[in-house]
Write a structure and sequence with these properties.
By secondary structure, this protein is mainly α. It is built from 29 helices and 8 strands. α5 crosses α6 and α19 runs antiparallel to α22.
């Protein structure tokens, strides 16, 4: 094995095989173990399901959600989900293949970038492994969100620009292909973020030649060839597409709070440490080891400069944006992984008995302290989150802190050894995902409508109506494989609702409890999902007056109840 690892070709192959095995275990394992969580997972899975079921070209160009037009994002992610459903069948595991595949591809790009930046196969390996085992990256490789495809597009573009700088002509096409993937995933934000990282790097490094090479006509031409077919088709099929998509959805999300994505200015200051956990504990030590100080503009410091401006540029931009969400932080993690990987790869090549330097010991001590803080925080989760009670979480809320305390003790005892630089964070990470797996069945009851609907779905008849009261739970349409009537709170369906006919709006979008009550008083069997307090108020209203309507609860799960105007059969 030592002889093989001394051969660069075999070294690269072995590192790649290890990274692929890690990704297979972390990202693909038990993809169908839990139901689709509201609202994002169920929304994006349902968009792909409706696209595949439609059999219509126009639905692949203009996506539908609950069978009305939905234009909040470009359709690449929905195309990929529909393709996965077409190959593997409609289900949770097939829906989660998309983020798992693109998470794996992103790890491989981190490996390639780490090799290219730091000049070592080992540094590339640790770049990929640190990224794969950071908390948010792991989570979003298993959650149905568009952000992992966006992250891949940005990483591909940055890798392409760096490769072009190194004289590899294919880097031009990789850069613009990454920008196109970003655009077709999340609009102008995708190519904008990629370009921002590269332009800032070129400006600070005075590498204007790189920018001139990037605007070679063949690159922008490739970008337009990829994105224009959809943009033109959407413009022809949907009146007002350009105004709504580019102005309302793209500019509006960045500059206004009307999309209800507002968070305080310090949001990402608090979020990024958790997103990059447990490796965040090593970041101060790694940054200190790699920071070139006064030589930051020297040619030798270019790799550090690229990673630094990539992270800082994104952090400042997203902090200034009026629209903030947790998963928006994902593209900030790859440059942090690159920064940590450089000194980590060096330390992990030392003899097994080598002592850790003072800075590393301090970082490992901080990691032990963070484990203790996490354990204490876990104990008070039910006091701060009404969706999780001590009764539901059970022994996990007490066993978890105990295990974290023992782990903190182990990290503290091992802090003096160099090998603990990697093994201690990896042990913490493995414990975290084990705890998340044990907590999943409890969270499933609160985050998904699948447990409510699956027992009833097999009993549905073609003439039955399914409705959601007080909110639109996307999983209702996904698990029943049919259109759902929405009572109040149309939210993101409102744009498509306004474009529907008057008869369609009257049938599928009901205003107020009494409109639903009138529908349930007819001959049609109606199933309704509502939060349990809302269900109780609705049933009390239905039993008032001279003509009461019997309301039958079928099942209560978590904080929601499924009820009907017919008794359970």
């Amino acid at each position: 094995m030592k002889e093989l690892m001394q051969n660069p070709v075999w070294q690269r192959r072995i590192y790649l095989l290890i990274l692929l095995a890690v990704c297979a275990a972390l990202f693909f394992g038990l993809g169908g173990m839990r139901d689709l969580w509201e609202s994002d997972e169920a929304r994006y899975a349902e968009l792909g399901r409706e696209m595949l079921a439609s059999g219509s070209f126009s639905h692949w160009v203009i996506p539908r959600l609950d069978y009305v037009i939905y234009l909040e994002k470009p359709p690449l992610y929905y195309w990929l989900t529909a393709l996965s459903f077409a190959i593997f069948g409609v289900g949770e595991a097939a829906a989660r293949l998309v983020p798992a595949v693109f998470g794996t591809l992103s790890v491989l790009i981190a490996f390639a970038l780490g090799r290219s930046l730091w000049g070592e196969e080992r540094a590339g390996f640790w770049s990929g492994l640190v990224l794969a085992t950071s908390l948010m990256f792991f989570a979003l490789s298993r959650v149905i969100l568009v952000d992992m495809v966006l992250c891949f597009g940005i990483m591909l573009a940055v890798w392409g620009a760096w490769s072009l700088r190194a004289g590899r002509d294919w880097g031009l096409y990789a850069f613009w292909a990454g920008c196109a993937i970003g655009f077709l995933t999340k609009g102008v934000l995708g190519p904008g973020l990629a370009a921002m990282a590269v332009v800032l790097f070129a400006a600070l490094a005075w590498e204007w030649r790189l920018l001139r090479r990037l605007i070679d006509w063949r690159g922008p031409a490739l970008f337009l060839v990829i994105i224009l077919p959809w943009v033109i088709a959407a413009s022809l099929l949907q009146d007002g597409f350009i105004t709504y998509f580019f102005w309302d959805e793209q500019v509006g999300r960045l500059l206004t709070t009307r999309h209800q994505r507002y968070q305080p200015w310090w949001f990402y200051f608090a979020l990024v440490p958790g997103a990059f956990f447990p490796w965040i504990a090593l970041l101060p030590w790694a940054a200190g080891r790699t920071f070139p100080r006064k030589l930051w503009r020297s040619p030798e410091a270019r790799p550090w400069l690229l990673a630094a401006v990539w992270f800082v540029g994104f952090f400042v931009f997203l902090t200034l944006s009026r629209s903030k969400m947790i998963h928006y932080a994902l593209p900030m993690l790859p440059p942090l992984a690159l920064i940590v990987a450089r000194p980590l790869s060096g330390v992990m090549s030392w003899p097994r008995g080598a002592l850790a330097p003072a800075g590393l010991r301090a970082s490992l001590t901080a990691l032990a302290a963070l484990c203790l803080v996490a354990g204490l925080g876990l104990m008070v989760v039910p006091a701060t989150n009404p969706d999780i009670s001590y009764a539901h979480a059970g022994v996990l809320l007490f066993a978890g802190p105990l295990v974290l305390a023992l782990l903190a003790l182990g990290v503290w005892l091992a802090r003096g050894r160099a090998w603990a630089a990697a093994y201690a964070p990896l042990a913490v990470f493995l414990l975290l995902i084990l705890g998340a797996g044990l907590a999943t069945p409890t969270l499933d009851r609160f985050r998904s409508v699948g447990p409510l609907i699956k027992p009833m779905a097999s009993q549905l008849q073609p003439g039955d109506l399914v409705a959601t009261l007080g909110d639109y739970w996307h999983g209702a349409a996904f698990y029943t494989r049919r259109r759902v009537a929405v009572v109040d709170n149309w939210g993101e369906l409102d744009f498509g609702r306004k474009l529907a006919s008057k008869q369609e709006r009257a049938r599928w979008f009901l205003k107020g409890d009494r409109a639903l009550l009138r529908r349930m008083a007819g001959n049609q069997r109606v199933f309704v999902i509502a939060e349990t307090p809302r269900f109780r108020r609705f049933r009390a209203m239905a039993q008032k007056g001279s003509q009461t309507l019997p309301i039958y609860p079928w099942v209560t799960m978590g904080d929601k109840t499924l009820f009907s105007n017919r008794p359970p059969s």
